[in-house]
Design goal:
Elements: E1 2-3, H1 14-20, H2 22-25, H3 35-52, E2 59-64, H4 67-75, E3 82-85, H5 90-101, E4 106-109, H6 119-125, E5 132-136, H7 148-157, E6 161-165, E7 181-185, E8 196-201, H8 226-261, E9 265-267, E10 278-283, H9 288-294, E11 298-299, H10 315-319, H11 324-327, E12 330-334, H12 341-362
Parallel strand pairs: 1-11, 3-4, 3-5, 5-6, 6-7
Antiparallel strand pairs: 2-8, 7-8, 9-10, 10-12
Length: 363
């Protein structure tokens, strides 16, 4: 199996596995005052520092079960109007839809054909009183990078907070100053699943989503897993060490993939403003679902893994102005640290040949 689904999740790094293994047997509750509990708590604080090292200065990091919980915590703390984008992850869009049903004012802005927000349109939207602007750094489906620093600046000028879903960019791109809240998770940077974090700028006050024992300074009750936290910390430290090399590697694979696939494909979203570990593209008349079945030896996607199986065309591609037909002719390829050039060359050759075969049989 050639794995080209890095936006869905990433392979566990060997260094992360080694950091986690001791905590399989060290079962003490990190919130216990016993010596073993204090040892577990110390490991968690070490991991917190490793993850926080990739965040801007002047804030505090809280561990969560994942980015979905982090985003929900931030959004549901707001008392006022929320402005977000039509291409956001379902963890944001579904939450603001729920808030809207509770009577909270929500404004979902469109994006251009390149997937980018129109900053003038955002500026106009912020003429109305606004409590929060939510925008992701790197889109999980099309890889487009939003101008987060500029969005944050406009939000602050309007007296609003800025929430950034940095899941796909954390540990891969520098997190610029600007956001007041940043959500991330471990399993997109070669760490374990079921652990994420919410970074909160100093002075920002949030309401807890979960109530109970008052862990994480009262913001997130529940017993933390030292093993998962240690894995997240190790993954973050490795990302900090290898970030430049990883980025150069995925850039080379992006160029190789386009060259191997050949003519007849159109990239969805901006090419200039995108993370090169993501290639979302379409081919006229392609049955992408059939292509997926024809290329079973390759793990790739038709869109967000969270929405797979829904049968609905991607909301992100529709937000770009694509028709349902074009959306259903699109595929998403993703690669990263452990993807080889030979794997990309072989996979893209198989995809190209299967797509051409479809075209011949349809003629």
């Amino acid at each position: 199996m050639i794995y080209l689904d890095y936006q869905a999740t990433t392979p566990l790094a060997p260094e992360v596995r080694q950091a986690m293994l001791p905590w399989l047997d060290h079962f003490a509750n990190p919130h216990s005052p016993s010596p073993a509990g204090r040892e577990a708590a110390a490991a968690i604080e070490h991991a917190r520092g490793q993850v926080a090292a990739l965040m801007p200065d002047g804030g505090e990091l809280f561990f969560t079960s994942g980015a979905t919980e982090a985003l929900n915590t931030a959004l549901r703390s707001v008392r006022g109007r929320i402005v977000t984008l039509a291409t956001e992850h379902a963890a944001v869009l579904d939450t603001v839809e729920w808030l809207g049903a509770q009577g909270q004012e929500v404004d979902v802005l469109p994006v251009g054909a390149d997937g980018l927000v129109d900053l003038d349109r955002l500026r106009t939207a912020l003429e109305k009183p606004t409590a929060m602007v939510a925008a992701m750094l790197v889109n999980n489906e099309i890889g487009v990078i939003q101008p987060v620093a500029a969005i944050a600046a406009l939000a602050h000028q309007a007296g609003a907070l800025m929430l950034c879903d940095a899941v796909q960019g954390f540990g891969r791109l520098d997190l610029l100053e600007g956001p007041d809240l940043i959500a991330c998770c471990a399993h997109k940077i070669h760490g374990p699943k079921a652990i994420g974090a919410l970074w909160v700028r100093s002075g920002v006050r949030l309401e807890p989503l979960l109530h109970g024992g008052g862990q994480e300074k009262g913001l997130r009750s529940g017993t933390l897993s030292p093993m998962l936290c240690a894995g997240f910390g190790a993954a973050a430290a490795l990302a900090a060490e290898r970030g430049a090399a990883d980025l150069a590697h995925v850039r080379a694979l992006f160029a190789l993939a386009l060259d191997t696939l050949g003519e007849g494909w159109t990239v969805n979203g901006s090419i200039a403003e995108r993370y090169p570990g993501n290639l979302n593209l379409r081919r006229d008349g392609l049955d992408a679902a059939r292509l997926l079945a024809d290329c079973r030896q390759i793990a790739f996607s038709l869109g967000s893994a969270c929405a797979s199986g829904s049968g609905r065309p991607s909301h992100v591609l529709r937000a770009l102005g694509l028709s349902d037909r074009d959306a259903r002719s699109s595929i998403r390829l993703g690669w990263g640290r452990y993807t080889s050039e030979e794997e990309v060359r072989q996979a893209c050759t198989l995809i190209r040949d299967a797509a051409l075969a479809q075209q011949r049989f349809a003629a």
